[in-house]
Amino acid sequence: MENEFVLIIDFGSQVTQLIARRLRELNVYCEIHPFNKVNDEFLKKISPKAIIFSGGPASVNNVNAPTPPLSVYNLGIPILGICYGQQIMMKMLGGSVISGSGTSEFGKSYINASKEGKNIKFLEGLFLNDRKEEVWMSHGDHVASIPKDFKVYGISENAPFAIIGNAKKHIYGVQFHPEVFHTLNGKLLIKNFLKLSNFSFNWSMKSFLKQAVDKIKNKVGRQTVICALSGGVDSSVTAILLNKAIGNQLKCIYVNNGLMRKNESEEVLKLYKNHYKLNLIEANEKNLFLSGLKGIKDPEQKRKIIGKLFIQVFEKHALQIGDVSFLAQGTLYPDVIESISFSGGPSVTIKSHHNVGGLPKKMNLKLIEPLKELFKDEVRILGKELGIPNDFLERHPFPGPGLAIRCPGEITDKKLDILRNADSIYIQQIKKHGLYNKIWQAFAVILPTKTVGVMGDTRTYDYVCTLRAVTSSDGMTADYYPFTHEFLSETATAIINNVKGINRVTYDITSKPPGTIEWE
User: Fold this and answer.
1) Which of 30, 33, 83, 139 is catalytic?
2) Does the N terminus or the C terminus of the chain have fewer Cβ atoms within 10 A?
3) Do 43 and 155 have their domain in common?
4) 173 in the same domain as 225
């Protein structure tokens, strides 16, 4: 892949992975690496065919502003700087950037092409018939001047240097974000940039599969790997991928932590036994997890405790198996970016995922996370390449911490049983109405509050249940599913009539952002 490789240098943007997503949609291979890991030796080793600078939350005028090595500009390959990436490029090459001064832009904006911008390959197919291009801006600082060998190709109301570049060297900068959906022709702009390097646009998930297998083999050698197997899509694909790469060197551990959905453990184990002959160990650790979570209300504490206990269980079984060096997990990119920026870059933590930010600092096992650069929909495509049945691939995402993060406040056996029953009825209703595969994720939440109700002639004082269902393509953004009032009424009635302990049902219509998909 040396001749078909794009390096994305991450400066901490929350949407950096969307750049990679657009490249993969264009069938181009890429990798994201944080700016502080990219040096001359690294660049020589990976030999990219093109480089993209991401956006980021910092100001280029800060003393310790994230900066790429100066040598990138002398590689003789196309470079595209996005937002912060454009600004740091200008600062390094002799332009200037001003902080604030009333020219910030956030949200939808429109760009006009300059005279020079109408005649360059980088903007081919854009600004047709002198139309404006609708883009998405998100910047406080702005470029105030550009180097002499650069020209202005596009201008917005508050960004006189919205598109700039040196066409001779194929170095370009844009103030907006072409990677986001709201920049209507952003994907075309990125494709034009890639055409400057003559990419063949033939990378596929089949290519990723081959690379992933080779990477696992090289990393593991003849050592033994244990895999955290939950029964969800991510861990299933991880396990089958590892099984393909290293066969009997893989030992899978299914942990029943007492936080699973109704009949989850039985269904999951049946699926694995019917479809695959994996080296599967069932670890019943319900008491360990529930005692560790007793009295804990803070969601971050819950996640970290669960992460720590999972590792304890895996390390215990690793000792029993003997000579285990690696722990494999089905971590995906949305988990990584919400917990900590990709590979240690500077983005802001949203919440700790039990298998990322919740891991203890010291572990006796080295991690293997072959899916950590993929989105959920891409994992499903990879699963199809591996021949995994739809029973596995069409399951809604289920979080590693399980029902712990769907039970705000203190966790008790009683609340978990109530939640399991309500969630089971809700999912049955969704399947009954033929909606399961139209929804990305659906689940019930039991709130840490009780309300007064009346059933027959009797006063009740029971828990509130909230229903959540969202549509999404990658888990990074999501909209609530627009159930009919008839469906909600029917489902609420079914839950209240059949689940003792709930007397009120609500529906969550929050999108992501500002909310997250899970409640904790």
Assistant:
1) 83
2) N
3) yes
4) no
